[in-house]
Amino acid sequence: LFGRLERQAPDALLAIIGLHRADPRPGKIDVGVGVYRDATGATPVMRAVKAAEARLLATQDTKSYLGPEGDQRFTDLLAPIALGGALAADGRITGVQTPGGTGALRLAAELIAVADAERAVWIGTPTWPNHAPIFRAAGLTVRTQAYYDAAQSRVDFDAFLAGLTQARAGDVVLLHGCCHNPTGTGFAHHEWAVLAKEIARRGLIPLVDLAYQGLGQGLEEDAAGMHVVLNGVPEAMVAYSCDKNFALYRERVGALWVQADRPAMALPVRENMLVLARSLWSMPPDHGAAIVRTILEEPALTSDWRDELTQMCGRIRSLRAILGAAHPALAPIARQDGLFALLPIGRETVAALRAEHGIYMPDSGRINIAGLNDETVARFVAALLPHLKG
Ligand code: LMR
Asked: How far apart are CA 101 and CA 108, in angstroms?
């Protein structure tokens, strides 16, 4: 059996972690994988997370099973933050805990496949390299449409809308809720409104990947576009990750919400999600969700979490301002949101920066802005400038 298997390259993005770690040069810079780092280069456990963990340690009296829905109170408390109060209370929407945002996307993919395996999933390019494999693994067809105009460093909205004209009614459209990965460039407010109308008019189903809420412009602002879409369409899905905004990466905590076209359909949708979750992971891991629940149950912890998240967001924005001011070709970075920006450089330059300066990023030229600090940003810019045009 196993003799039939072919070799597989390691995930190119995750491989950067090991490559950077193995580099002995003291001045090396990691702007690879998307994790928030503070000014010292650490990815700390957030204060509210530490406090919640201390409480859990003192009070948790069982590790017995929950169920395929995970910690339902976690999902219910997170819903108003992700969906807003009105949608969180909407009887058409049902949600379950998942192992991270990837688990949420995979559960969404399986749900689509069970409902109708002929539906294609449309993905704007470029995107997170794991998006297409997740949908393909569920047996779905992935189609792509242009999203980004790299020459102008802006969303190519006309091309994106033109791409939607190729989709059949009932197909799924993947949207990044905020902090687009890898470009940092999202839809403008008026574009979200046009998009919502167009998606509804064509009978398409939006699947919003919301993995960086609070790291762009703020918790409310980062979900505002998605709310416009959810309010404008009958059916939708939201795949949510707490990896970045609660800094819970390895705990694997996320959620999937599905909006049915009428309240009576929410229960069958939910039952199918639970059956699928049972065969995928039986039950999601508890600890991360218990932490988020504990934070959101306690106003003082919630407020401390929000404050620290706002500080993290501010640090990213100030680094963006420094990069944007360094060279005209980098100016768009100051206007973008979230952890990522796509540098206007090719693979050769990426390789040269790695070989000559110990600067690590994927071949796409995507950088994790939070991988820089006040000291390294100057060295980073000095290494990059000779490779920029204009
Ligand atoms: C990234 O894009 O760097 C992050 O989302 C981490 C990952 O899982 O790829």
From this structure: 10
